[in-house]
């Protein structure tokens, strides 16, 4: 959301990409520690992959 109003959209999208990667790792750790179940892990992982694809698409649209 911040990238939509920012002058430096690339930096905001890179930060969003780093945050989603961090969330993926934490989500995986929660699953491995059996804090969340298999179904919740699968649903959450699917949503994070979708977010990552969206961020990647937006990054490709932003000029260097």
Provide key terms for this protein.
single chain, mainly alpha, 3 helices, 81% helix
Describe this entry's structure for a reader.
- With 64 residues, the chain is mainly α.
- The chain has one domain (10-61).
- It is 81% helix and 0% strand.
- It contains three helices and no strands.
- The chain is elongated and about 40 Å long.
- The mean pLDDT is 91.
Quick summary:
The chain has 64 residues and is mainly α. It contains three helices and no strands.
Low-confidence stretches: none
Helix count equals 3
Measured on Cα atoms, how large is the radius of gyration?
Answer: 14 Å
Strand content: under 5%
Mean pLDDT: 91
* Structural class by secondary-structure content: mainly alpha
Distance between the termini: 19 Å
- Count all strands and give the number: 0
Which of globular, elongated, flat, extended, rod-shaped describes the shape?
elongated
Reported for the largest beta sheet, the result is: none
Number of domains: 1
Give helix and strand order, one letter per element, not per position. Answer: HHH
Tell me roughly what share of residues is in helical segments.
Answer: over 70%
């Amino acid at each position: 959301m911040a990238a939509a109003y920012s002058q430096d959209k690339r930096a905001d999208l890179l930060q969003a990409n780093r945050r989603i990667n961090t969330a993926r790792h934490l989500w995986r750790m929660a699953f491995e520690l059996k804090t969340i179940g298999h179904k919740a892990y699968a649903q959450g992982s699917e949503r994070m992959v979708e977010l990552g694809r969206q961020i990647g698409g937006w990054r490709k649209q932003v000029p260097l």
